[in-house]
UniProtKB/TrEMBL annotation:
<feature type="domain" description="HTH lysR-type">
    <location>
        <begin position="3"/>
        <end position="60"/>
    </location>
</feature>
<keyword id="KW-0805">Transcription regulation</keyword>
<dbReference type="GO" id="GO:0003700">
    <property type="term" value="F:DNA-binding transcription factor activity"/>
</dbReference>
<keyword id="KW-0238">DNA-binding</keyword>
<dbReference type="Pfam" id="PF03466">
    <property type="entry name" value="LysR_substrate"/>
</dbReference>
<dbReference type="InterPro" id="IPR036388">
    <property type="entry name" value="WH-like_DNA-bd_sf"/>
</dbReference>
<dbReference type="InterPro" id="IPR005119">
    <property type="entry name" value="LysR_subst-bd"/>
</dbReference>
<keyword id="KW-0804">Transcription</keyword>
<protein>
    <submittedName>
        <fullName>Transcriptional regulator, LysR family</fullName>
    </submittedName>
</protein>
<dbReference type="Pfam" id="PF00126">
    <property type="entry name" value="HTH_1"/>
</dbReference>
<dbReference type="GO" id="GO:0043565">
    <property type="term" value="F:sequence-specific DNA binding"/>
</dbReference>
<dbReference type="InterPro" id="IPR036390">
    <property type="entry name" value="WH_DNA-bd_sf"/>
</dbReference>
<dbReference type="InterPro" id="IPR000847">
    <property type="entry name" value="LysR_HTH_N"/>
</dbReference>
<dbReference type="InterPro" id="IPR058163">
    <property type="entry name" value="LysR-type_TF_proteobact-type"/>
</dbReference>
<dbReference type="GO" id="GO:0006351">
    <property type="term" value="P:DNA-templated transcription"/>
</dbReference>
<comment type="similarity">
    <text>Belongs to the LysR transcriptional regulatory family.</text>
</comment>
Length: 294
């Protein structure tokens, strides 16, 4: 036999409110509908659940016993229903970013963002692979490229430069770098491709064949770590070394720089950017990255 959930809930609300009028207001029906549902329940179980008088209604002994058996269950259902109507306690933004960018820049930027927006929850996953934003549970991807991704929206965040950095102790030991040619007096820390220093030296008019190279690390943040330990001079995206420069663990050893071709973009489905928490986050990341460079 089917359980008359609607009528049982009506009985629970009437018992909780102590008034059919108040119960009708809460349930969005007429007092007559409430009265009819209570009569249906009483007829089904063959017992009076309320006494009625000019002063109002009151639970009978049977009614009070019956309510004590169902009130906890309906109370839990009402609480769960209210929580779903209210939505999550805080909105959630799921971010995917390359490990080096997350380590060098994103962690600091998100920490400052959450200090101002404590009700927005963030989760960050770090992978080098290209996530599928249409099928995977990711809201925003921070991608390094030209910003053209069919079917997706891209918002420019920053265009990093390649700059020459070294630890202050290394420069104090071996002397300053006043020109690109002076870099050849140091061990050079290459990127994983081994092409960064040769191209940069060539662009600066320096014979790159005389260069001495140190360990090549697959991940740029390991190169950053090696540079802070004085293992050599590095040519790195300024985004990657922002915190190290600010803390004095690294210094910009030479003013000469070479803007990179690609930029960092926040990428997502067009409708994702319409969510106010996402829009606030992207605006924050743009401001934290500084003005666009030509």
């Amino acid at each position: 036999m089917a359980i008359p959930i609607r009528d049982l809930h009506t009985f629970h609300v009437v018992a909780r409110c102590g008034s059919m009028v108040a119960a009708a207001r809460e349930l969005g029906v007429t007092p007559g509908a409430i009265s009819q549902r209570i009569k249906t329940i009483e007829d089904r179980y063959g017992a009076r659940l309320f006494t009625r008088s000019r002063k109002g209604i009151a639970l009978t002994k049977v009614g009070a016993s019956f309510w004590s058996e169902i009130r906890e269950a309906f109370g839990a259902i009402e609480a769960a229903h209210a929580a779903q109507l209210a939505g999550p306690a805080t909105p959630l933004i799921r971010i995917n970013a390359a490990p080096t960018y997350a380590w060098s820049s994103l962690v600091s930027d998100l920490g400052a963002f959450q200090a101002v927006h404590p009700k927005i929850r963030l989760t960050v996953e770090t992978e080098d692979r290209l996530v599928d934003l249409r099928s995977e549970p990711v809201d925003l991807a921070i991608r390094h490229g030209l910003g053209t991704y069919p079917g997706l929206k891209s918002v420019w965040l920053c265009a990093p430069e390649l700059i020459v950095v070294a630890s202050p102790d290394l420069l104090a030991e071996k002397g300053p770098i006043r020109s690109a040619a002076d870099c050849l007096n140091f061990t050079l820390l290459p990127d994983s491709t081994g092409k960064d220093w040769p191209l940069w030296l060539r662009a600066q008019g320096v014979d790159e064949t005389r260069a001495r190279y140190g360990t090549a690390f697959k991940d740029d943040f390991l190169t950053v770590k090696a540079a802070t330990k004085g293992q050599g001079v590095a040519l790195l995206n300024d985004v990657y070394v922002r915190d190290e420069l600010a803390a004095g663990r690294l210094v910009r050893a030479l003013d000469a720089s070479w803007p990179t071709k690609f930029a960092y973009y926040a990428v997502g489905l067009p409708e994702t950017f319409q969510r106010p928490p996402v829009a606030a986050l992207v605006t924050w990341l743009q401001a934290a990255s500084g003005p666009e460079r030509g």
